[in-house]
C-alpha cells in the first residue's frame, strides 16, 4: 500500500508538471487527484479546448491508467456566445477545410454544445472535424456523430493495419496482434509506454472503414 501511495503521489506531481508544460492549458485552474493510477481532473476553465488539452496532457504521463475529466467549462458572461453564433462559426470553420468543406456535415448547437453529423471516407476526417470544432470560442462540448464509410473486407483491413504498424518507427509491431470483427479492430499485445499504445491505436484508426478500435494492448514499464 505504501508503494501504491508513493506511485500515486509521483503521478500527481508529474501530471501537474505536464499541465504546466502544455502551453494550451491553464494549470492554476485545474485540480489533480490520483488513486491507483486513475487521474481525476477538476476545476473550471474558459474553453472546451483547454479541457480536452488537459485530458490529453494527463494521458501522456507515465503510470496513468485512466483519466476522469470532471473539469467544467464556464465562460465569462462578457464572452458568452449565442448558439446561432457558434453554429455559424462551426459551419464556416468546416467550410474552410479543403477536405471537410465538401462533405456537407450537419451542425446542431444547443446550450453551447455542438453536435456534428454526416459521413466521411476516412477516420482522420472525423477527427479533424472535431478538432476544428473544439477550438471554437464559446463551445462547451462536442458530440461527434460522423460515420465512416465501410469499404475493405476484414482480411484487407487486417493486412492494411499490420503493414501500417510495421512501418511505424515508434512501435515494435511484432508484439502487437490485430483482429478484425466487422468494422472493429481489436489490438492486443504489449508496448513500452502509453504513447506507444496511443500510436498503435491511432494507426488502427487510420485504416479506411474502421468504425471502432478496441485497444487491449497492455503497457509494460519493465
Can you give a write-up of this model?
It is a single chain. The chain has about 220 residues and is an alpha/beta fold. Helices cover about 35% and strands about 25% of the residues. The protein is built from six helices and eleven strands. Strands 1, 2, 3 and 4 form a four-stranded mixed sheet that branches. Strands 8, 9, 10 and 11 form a four-stranded mixed sheet that branches. It is flat. Mean pLDDT is about 85; it is low at about 1-5.
Provide the descriptors you would attach to this structure in a database record.
222 residues; alpha/beta; 4-stranded mixed sheet; 6 helices; 37% helix; flat
Class by SSE composition: alpha/beta
Encode the helix/strand succession as letters. Answer: HEEHEEHEEHEHEEHEE
Separation, N- and C-terminal Cα atoms: 20 Å
Strand content: 25-35%
Mean pLDDT across the residues is 87
Count up the helices.
Answer: 6
Stretches where pLDDT falls below 50 for ≥5 residues?
A: 1-5
What's the topology here?
Elements: H1 2-21, E1 30-35, E2 38-45, H2 48-59, E3 66-69, E4 72-73, H3 83-95, E5 106-110, E6 113-120, H4 123-134, E7 141-148, H5 154-167, E8 176-181, E9 184-191, H6 194-205, E10 212-215, E11 218-219
Parallel strand pairs: 2-3, 2-4, 6-7, 9-10, 9-11
Antiparallel strand pairs: 1-2, 5-6, 8-9
Amino acid at each position: 500500500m505504501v508503494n501504491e501511495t508513493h506511485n500515486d503521489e509521483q503521478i500527481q506531481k508529474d501530471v501537474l508538471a505536464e499541465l504546466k508544460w502544455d502551453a494550451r492549458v491553464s494549470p492554476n485552474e485545474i485540480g489533480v487527484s490520483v488513486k491507483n493510477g486513475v487521474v481525476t481532473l477538476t476545476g473550471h476553465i474558459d474553453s472546451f479546448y483547454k479541457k480536452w488539452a488537459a485530458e490529453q496532457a494527463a494521458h501522456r504521463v507515465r503510470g496513468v491508467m485512466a483519466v476522469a475529466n470532471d473539469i467544467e467549462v464556464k465562460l465569462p458572461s462578457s464572452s458568452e456566445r449565442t448558439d446561432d453564433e457558434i453554429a455559424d462559426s462551426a459551419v464556416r470553420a468546416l467550410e474552410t477545410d479543403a477536405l471537410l468543406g465538401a462533405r456537407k456535415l450537419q451542425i446542431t448547437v444547443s446550450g453551447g454544445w455542438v453536435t456534428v453529423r454526416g459521413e466521411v471516407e476516412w477516420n482522420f476526417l472525423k477527427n479533424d472535424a472535431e478538432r476544428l470544432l473544439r477550438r471554437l470560442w464559446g463551445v462547451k462540448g462536442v458530440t461527434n456523430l460522423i460515420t465512416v464509410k465501410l469499404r475493405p473486407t476484414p482480411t484487407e483491413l487486417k493486412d492494411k493495419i499490420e503493414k501500417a504498424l510495421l512501418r511505424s518507427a515508434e512501435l515494435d509491431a511484432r508484439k502487437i496482434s490485430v483482429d478484425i470483427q466487422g468494422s472493429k479492430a481489436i489490438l492486443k499485445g504489449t508496448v513500452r509506454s502509453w504513447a506507444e499504445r496511443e500510436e498503435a491505436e491511432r494507426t488502427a484508426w487510420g485504416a479506411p472503414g474502421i468504425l471502432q478500435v478496441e485497444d487491449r494492448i497492455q503497457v509494460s514499464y519493465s
